[in-house]
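Dig into these lines:

——
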Amino acid sequence: MKQADLTSTEKQELLTKLKHELSELEQQIESIHQRSAPVQLDQQAVGRVSRIDAIQQQQMAQAGEVLMQRHLLRIKQILLEPEEYGFCLECGESIGLGRLTIHPIAELCIQCQSEAENS
């Protein structure tokens, strides 16, 4: 089903939303960097279970940071090439306002995304 192309106002609103999200992501990544200091190995200063818990939290924060970095890069790509925004990378059709409102960094239309997930 072909989606209507975004109007310039709709596109501008989505890009403004992405700029705001970019700023928030940069702050979150900075916060993760501050919290992911190396874990102390001195068993007398920190108990073994607490140290293991700290290491696990550090690893989860690092995994979250990787996802945030990918998200950040996609937003920067969109902002560098706004004329390409809103069109499916696979078929070239409009992604549609509804999908972009829910998932502003979507690269594929619903049909192409479904085909990609089923193959």
Notes: Residues 8-30+50-118 form a domain with the Four Helix Bundle (Hemerythrin (Met), subunit A) fold (CATH 1.20.120). The longest helix spans residues 48-80. The two ends are 20 Å apart (CA to CA).
